[in-house]
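INFO  loader      accepted 1 record
INFO  loader      residues=528
INFO  predictor   begin
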Amino acid sequence: MDSCVSALNAGDPDKCLEALEEYVTLNESKFNFDEDTSLISEFISAIVQYVSKEESSVKGRRLALHALRILTRQKGGFGSILNEEGARRLLNLAGFGYKGDQFEWPTMVEALKCLCNLTFQHQDLSPVIVKVEGALSYLLHLVAWKNTEYSVRFYASRLVFLVSAVNPSSRATVQEQKGLRSLCDGVMLALGMSQGEVGPLYDSVKVDELSKEDADLAAEMMKTVFNISMEVAKAEPTPEVSMAVAELVQVTRIILSSRAIMERADMSTLRSQVIYMMINMPRSCAAYFTPRSHSQFSTEKVVVFEHRDVTAAHHLIHHLDSCVKNLDGAHMTAAAGDSVVPVITALANCGRTCGPARRYWRARILPTLRTVDCRPDQGETLKARLVRLMTSSHTTLSSTVADFLFVLCKENAGRLVKHTGYGNAAGLLLQRGLLSGGSATNTGDYSSDSSDSDTEEYRESGVNPMTGGPGPRGQEDPFAGMTEEQKEEEAEKLGELFQKLEETGVMKVMRVGDPKPGDPKGGAPSGS
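INFO  predictor   done
INFO  writer      dumping tokens
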């Protein structure tokens, strides 16, 4: 590092290139730095001065920024560039303010990588970048411009994501710069789509052959879309924003409708980000997720339910099944549980906002209870696995699964108990204050009719409400045929039994007007 600093300060072009090449080669895989912070700071200042000189070569600027990127893997010594002037210099090297038509793509990539590392390591840099007038607008332009080189688009997307992630207040600024529109255009460009082409008739086969590079680029942009969509949900969207969100929901549907993308191992990042996007899907755009089908029957590629194309919903439920198949309540790791939570959260949100998807999932997971041969947590069906997870030691997962099943039951306590048993549902019902039954106060898109109710079948099936398993069938009413006098006589016998239990000390009966246990006014029994 000393020799490199000396060469840069001396200014000899050939020696600078030689020193930089040597440093980059020797330290390419280095992540731990033993050098003194003052030396690192001196090296950083020398690099910044070198790349700012007009006479420095393209190769020299690229190598110098590569060396700077290596240094950004640690935190010390960056005081000279963690300010508006330093941020502007790096942005200029990334093409900001450039008036020509021949971009230095390799230099731009290295500058953007440096900014990404610095923003990640030093959160104070995010508001500085936002403060540079036109910087966010320029980065968003790189994301959506079709002539931008791939790596530049990728790291411009990552920088916008990092700025919006470490500095939530910047999300409104990104949106003011028409960020959602630019990101939507960028995602469609990466997927080979164009604006106005992503309607309900778009054939998802067109994205089946998507390359891993394009999928990763779309996923990187989707990460920022997720952050910005949280900001959009706070206020009434403009028509332009509404159109962008609607197109993004349609893009989500197209991706999830592709069997190839849902099954290919190299598409896992894109799948995850698309599912995250569904967590923030607004109700106003839910219809785009299950568009009306022009066919009444399902085909090999299209699943139709209630005259709606529910292919995306169908693939999602298969994805959920594969996610929970290997989860066991007794042996599940925390990491495995954490990976499933976003999927179930997205399904629950979609179920609240999209009626056709919820009804399709309910038909697949919680079919009508015509016969009950085992408890709901027994077996290897998706329903059984989900019910077992309701009592998992992974509390976040158990509450998320319970919430999803509650949504499938229209957030009605009675229906949830029918399908899962009171014991499995007790935790959620306690949290919602519904142990005695009833429905939650909700804003879900639930129809008022009872077309998906199975009350009569449930009564005939003889289910034990506590376990949700099989119970006595055809049991006669013990009070059938009894007169009112006989019923009163039985009630008196029951009262006498309670009195005997109290006299023997087995239990203490509270009567109307008695003070509550632990009430100071009632003279609660004191401990010895």
